[in-house]
Write a structure and sequence with these properties.
Order of helices and strands: HEEEEEEEEHHH
Shape: elongated
Distance between the termini: 107 Å
Strand order of the largest sheet: 1-8-3-6
Oligomer: single chain
Strand content: 25-35%
Amino acid sequence: MILQIACCMSLLLLMGLPHGGRAEVSRHRLTIFAEAGRMECYHQAVAATEHIILEYQVIHGGQGEAHINFNLMDPQRRLLVTDHKQGKAKHKLVSNETGIYKLCFDNTISSFNQKIVVFNLEIVAANHEELERQLLIKDMNTDYHFERTYTHLDDYLNKISVNIMRSRQSQDYIRTHEAKDRKLAESNFTLVNNWSCAQFIAMIIVGMLQVFMLRSIFNTDGRFYKFWKKFQLIY
C-alpha cells in the first residue's frame, strides 16, 4: 500500500513538471531589490531539451557600482552559468534534465549598497515553432489554395510577431531607463534636502553665535568683554 502511494505521488510530481513537447512559452519579467550582503534566489521548473533564455541588467547600484554576481544551477545544483560583477548579461542554453533550476543574484560583494535588477526569463520548447505549425495545420483543410493562403498569412503573422517583439524590447528598454532615472532623481532629491537642512542649521548656529558675541562685547561685566580687553592689551 505504501509503495502504491509513493508511486502515485511520484507520478503526480512528474505530471506537474513541464514536458518537452509542449508548445507554450513561459515568460517572466521581474524587478528585484537585492539587499546589501544578501543573495536573492528564484526557482523555475524546466523540462529536458527546453531552451532557457535569461537576460538581466542592474539599473541602480546605490552609491557604488552597478554590478552583481549571478549563478544558474541545474536540479543537481551544479553550476551552469557564473557571472562575476556584471552590470548586464544575456544567456541562452538548453536544459539537459527535467527538474527545478535555481537562479541567484548575489549581492554579498556589497556591504552597504542595495542593487535594483531587472531580468527576463523565457522557457521555450526545443521544437516550439514546429509544434505550433503542426497544431495549426492539423485543423486546416489540405486544399492547395487554402495552403497557399495560409503560407502568405503565416509570413505576415511572422512579420507582425517580429515587429511586436521589437516594440516590446523598446518598451522594456525605455522602462528600464525610466526606473534608473527615477531612482537617480529620488537620490538627488534626498541629497539636496539633507544638504539644505545642514546649511539651514549652520546658518542658525552662526547667527546665534554672532548675536552672543555682539552682546558680550557691549556687556562690560561679562567674561567675554574682559577677555577682549586683555587680548587688546597684549597685542
